[in-house]
UniProtKB/TrEMBL annotation:
One of its GO terms (molecular function) is arylformamidase activity. SUPFAM superfamilies: alpha/beta-Hydrolases (SSF53474). The keyword Hydrolase applies. The chain crosses the membrane at residues 38-62, 100-116. It comes from Cutaneotrichosporon spelunceum. Gene3D superfamilies: alpha/beta hydrolase. This is BD-FAE-like domain-containing protein. The keyword Ligase does not apply. Residues 228-322 form the BD-FAE-like domain. Residues 170-198 are annotated as: Disordered. Keywords: Hydrolase, Membrane, Transmembrane, Transmembrane helix. It comes from the Eukaryota.
Amino acid sequence: MTAALWLSIAACGAIVSTTAVSTAFWAFMVFVPLVNIIAIPSLIGSVLLLVHSLPFAAYLLLAQTDAPKHKGSLFLPFSPSRHLGVLVAVSSYLRAVVTLAPKFALIAFGTAWKLWRAPLRGDVYQLPELAKGGWWWERYASFGIQYQDPRQPGGAYKLDIFRAQPSDWHSTPALSPDSTSPPSSPRSNTSFVTLPDVDPGSRADLNEFPQHIWSEVPMGSPMEEESSDLRPVVVFLYDVGMMGPIRPRRWMFGLTGLLFAQQGYVGVVPDITTYPTGQMEDMVADVRAALAWVNKEIRNYGGDPSRIYLCGHGLGAHLGMYTITQDVVVHSRDQVELHNAAVGWAGMGCTKGPVTSAGRDIPNGVRALRVYGQEIELPPVKGVILLSPVADVIKQVRHEAKCWLEHVSPLRRSLGSSQTRCMRHSLGHILFAAKDIVDADLLPHSALILHGKRNQLVPEWQGTWLAELLRGFDFHVTLRTYARLGHFDVVTNLMAGFESRSTAFLLEEIRSFIECSD
């Protein structure tokens, strides 16, 4: 009787409990539609707010200086397609910063630790007096050297010098295991091989190609046969047109100068004024001042002032080549104007000498061209090394406009807000306009152009078109395109610690170029 009673009570309790749970469940389900009505729009609104806030933030940080006059006091994007383009660019930029910043810090620290522990080896290159008895890093580099008086607050006026290291320190990064391995005895097989990182259309004759990049033998000094202790000088100009709130500075490219020093060159990395602190006039004046300082003082650091090579990346490559071209074009124009004046006077009978040749026409754009920082004498440059160069500024601005980046990019505003100023500051335009009057003997006679086929910021055709244009001035131009490299890959592969399987080929091209130029 007692057991039956307890069973009845348990059954009643179970029924009541089940009923309570069921009631609570259905009471909750009544509020689910209400929660969905509130939560789903909130989620959508949050996503839309994030999507709009990133492009707005990019415009607030980068696009307010020299904004289009019809946009008013606050310049913001409202086009959905522009939002999408800027959002993709901002996402790529943030991903690159998050990925590269920790790696860069670790490599810089590891490289400094390695150099600090390295024993002093001055048997090949004698250290100058200013590097003896100082801090340990003065064996390898001198930082923060003033190369000009400050012209304006925030301007660039310092540079870093990396001394050429002994030849037994030189090293060429080995190819990775997953790369296309060359045959162990290439000369016994076919005489041609396709380089794994170079564009497949480029082939090298192995009977002439240096064999040390296929082996573990360290890359030797580029001029070991020279008896002089003075080394070639490579002046590196970073991309002054880099987008983003983090402006490029010389300390960011110290590893590039160090890699050049490890190959037996004296590496120089100057600070260059960037937009909005300055514009094209200030940048060209900085390059002239840096080159003039190098020509005057580099002997004190083991460099040969008669073998100065100018290396630049992106808009820095354009800036370096433009600085040389501007000086040459203006000098050639002045010579032609004097010649035209002499021809005119002879035609009017004001001189007794015969008229030997007719005057040449000078385009209007060339007539208006002037040299920036002309009080600084520009020294001769032996050759130029152009990494992913910009050649045609107008087409580059149009390319950025297709990607919806023309307002956040400093390219158009640093070279000039108007199309006329952009054309005047475009390397390709002034070279093409002055092709009939330029004295080609004043230009460097050799150029090396290295470009990546995966470059989305500066298309490959910029380097190809510049190579064809320079060949018209009797330039010896070497053009190499790399299938796996993008815009920044070309320069990061030339940083100590960032070496990859492409670094060996990039260094071999640079070494061969400098050897042939010397």
